[in-house]
Design a protein that fits this description.
Strand content: under 5%
Largest sheet: none
Radius of gyration: 14 Å
Oligomer: single chain
Low-confidence stretches: none
Number of helices: 7
Number of strands: 0
Distance between the termini: 45 Å
Structural class: mainly alpha
Length: 123
């Protein structure tokens, strides 16, 4: 049986370190940092650790409905989503995640773009 990316890279222990590093960088970024100004960061980091774990084949799971509801009304734009993906790629690179695996994880993020980006007709 083939290992999941979650298992390959060390499970929750590694994913939690990745997510903590990710949020350090996101908070410093001018494009995406402001989205986290009034957020309960410990709670968000816990959710994101589970979410990223699920993207990597881990045991946690999030429905599309849950993701869409959590981001409704945030007015996230495509360039901000693209910046998020750039930062995710940088962090994964820093954790020695292999390029094909980074592409797979970013593909999972990309598959959910429409859940986060509101078009004018979404109101």
């Amino acid at each position: 049986m083939e290992k999941t990316l979650f298992d390959k890279y060390g499970g929750f222990s590694t994913v939690s370190k990745v997510v903590l590093t990710l949020y350090d960088r996101l908070l410093e970024d001018d494009d995406v940092g402001p989205f986290f100004d009034d957020v309960d960061l410990p709670r968000l980091i816990d959710h994101q650790t589970k979410f990223v774990s699920s993207l990597m084949g881990g045991p946690a799971s999030f429905t599309d409905d849950h993701i869409e509801r959590a981001h409704r009304g945030m007015q996230i734009e495509d360039h901000q989503f693209d910046r998020l993906k750039e930062i995710v790629a940088e962090v994964l690179t820093d954790f020695d995640v292999e390029d094909p695996d980074i592409a797979a994880i970013l593909g999972e993020f990309e598959a959910r773009r429409a859940l986060l980006i509101e078009t004018p007709n979404d109101n």
